[in-house]
Queue: 2 jobs
Job 1
Amino acid sequence: MSTQRTPRTRRRGAVLTAAVLLGTATAATAPATAVPRPPTPLPTAPTRPPVQPTCSSAYKITQKLEGGAVWNMCWRYNTDAGLTLDNVTYQPPGAAAPIRVLTSARLAQIHVPYDDGAAEYDDLTGAGFGWGLQNLKPAECPGGTISTVKVPEVGQVKGLCTTTRARGHAYRMAADAGGQVYQVQGKDLLVYTVNKVGWYEYISEWRFSADGTIGANVGATGSLSPVDYNATDGRGWPIGKGARAYATSHAHNVFWKLDFGLDGTKDRIEQFDSTVTAPVNGGGPTVKTKRTAVTKELAGDARNMRWWRVVSGTGKNADGHARSYEIVPGHTNTHAGRGFTKHDVYFTQSRACEQFASNNIGNCGTNAGDSVDKWVNGETLTKPSVWVNIGFHHIARDEDQQPMPVHWQGFQLAPRDVTAMNPLTPSDLASENGQPDLGS
Ligand SMILES: [Cu+2]
């Protein structure tokens, strides 16, 4: 969010204050000067990118994890989008070649509307998120590497941490006899930046596990905005002594944009819904699961027992099953305030100008609309972009001072039939695929 309680202006850069531009966004009195910048469109990904990362070594991230699983990707930084990961591949243990998972993945907006309607920010394209990249000291990238990021408008920032972190059990299974326990303690590859926007600091984290799972999370920390302690209208929470300093409640609606290209091909989208029926005439409750092909653009709403997956156009695992990744949202508060915050996931036909979920700067033309909800207009999905919206309604609490504890919000991408078995299966169990031999 910005340092000013400036009404939302649907022009990029219009709520950037001079202080933000100088990287000293701490003064509540900073003038709300509009600072226009020339558009810097994001590079367009090629239709059929090569499977292996094609960047120079300074922009390549390679990590081997337990069992010999390898993640590979390229990173780049854009002052509007922040960190982008390209050409993300996963090579399961023992596999002959890497599997293309994501062509491109990044944040697509952090939208912050205040409950009193007086302020509303688009932190990426309207409040200087990318400009606010923070220098990291080795202590906040434990065991990892801090890469220097060129932020054209700011300079060189030691701002990208690549490291690993213990995950705990990847699996555990006691053998039927002999007392043997199969277990693996895993570690994850973590890639993150910290971006300061006003008083808030956002940790944007990507997490890659040896079993093929990807996590995307944003952690909000820093400080509550000190100019927002006036919520005596019932839309805040008293933070200081007694009942005077009411911090205004607000939401952080975080959007990510994912372009898969799973196996380097065109993906398709499927939605699954399960309906539970209570028992009739004895027996147990029954459940029916329905698969719906999402062939046209969709603004999807999360629902109990509903989920979506991205399916490879051609790629199959060794069992002959189509490779896919399931979208697993974390806890979310869907905000009904704007068209683009009303829905939990959007599938749009990929278009180079459609870059940000709100306050888009991609120059799609005057009638195209500047938010993702407007781009769901009936097109057939032959090359889907996936937009995930995870919201957090932040009602401040005493513990938010000081500094504010990190609050995480995000989702996972879980492999579904990417490999024929658990990619970490120990050799003793490699034959246990499908119908078990019950010895009858
Ligand atoms: Cu907040």
Note: The chain has one domain: 18-425.
Job 2
Amino acid sequence: MMTERTYAPVAWKGITQPSKVCQKGCDMRNAGPPRLLCVDDEPNVLDGLKRILRHRYQVTCAKGGTSAIEVLRNNGPFAVMMADLLMPGMNGVALLEQARGLAPDTIRILLTGQADLPAAIDAVNQGNVFRFLTKPCSSGDLFQALDESIEQYRLVNAERVLQFTETMMASLDARDCYTAAHSNRVSFSAVVTAEAMGVSPAQVEIIRIGAKVHDIGKIGIPDAVLRKPGKLTEEELDVMRLHPQIGKRILERVDRFHDYLPIVELHHENYDGSGYPYGLKRDQVPREVRIVHVADVFDAVTSGRTYRPSLSEDQALKLLQVGSGRLFDPVVVEAFTEILRSRRVLNEILESEWNHTRA
Ligand SMILES: [Fe+2]
Ligand SMILES: [Fe+2]
């Protein structure tokens, strides 16, 4: 059972409300199987659909068009909405047309009888429906149409997320060019580390985007602190340390960014609980965040700033080794170190090949 903890409110620029994170620090609202909205005027049909589909999807049922619009407004977002064509009051075509305006990203499927094929084809041609299924349809056809629709939903969302990420990073880059370049490097090395650790492709994608926006909260840090050429004072460090929570507040307003919130909010937590903002330790912090944490620190210390020189790769690796099990997840440090060593070996081979070719 998930328990919740609260952290003390910090009074600065709107960061005044206590925020809740689950014990593992992750927002679970969008977790789990894809969300599906089924609409029919027959309760028996809805019960049957729910029985078949509930093992693969989070199924919500609405009886009739008016109720479906209400659910869409108040309980979205849904990956897919599937509606019967023949319903009293609002028919399926009118409903899906209205749904397109309300939730344009939700993929729409129409269920229709043979006799109503022309209406279904019209709906597809007008762009109101992604697929139609003729009744009776086999469970195989049903699952295939749903899986294709969910894939389409993911593609559209991934594209939007990428565009939005680039826009946000460009606005941060305009104020602090270090952070955008740093975030791209962190994303790259965190992804390579995650792949070496056997993290699933879906989680790797979360790491890729999450690492790109991990410092987005710096948008809310005043120039006097963010762009200060010298070392920060303790008070200024306190302001800078708000960036994970500011980042979370910015992104939590956007549904499709919920998967990345743990990385944004918790990337400064240390393995032993000595980090911020909550002092979470070990697996209270999700693994993808622990991976980004190592890549983040490595990049930060190997990048020179005006107020401190950069460390060499060897010095930075030493720092990771010393902090392994204390500040950093030892499994992540091991994978990260191994990647750097392999890259070096590869570079040495390439260099000697190159010299050999030139000789
Ligand atoms: Fe950060
Ligand atoms: Fe960072």
Note: Residues 1-31 have pLDDT under 50 and may be disordered.
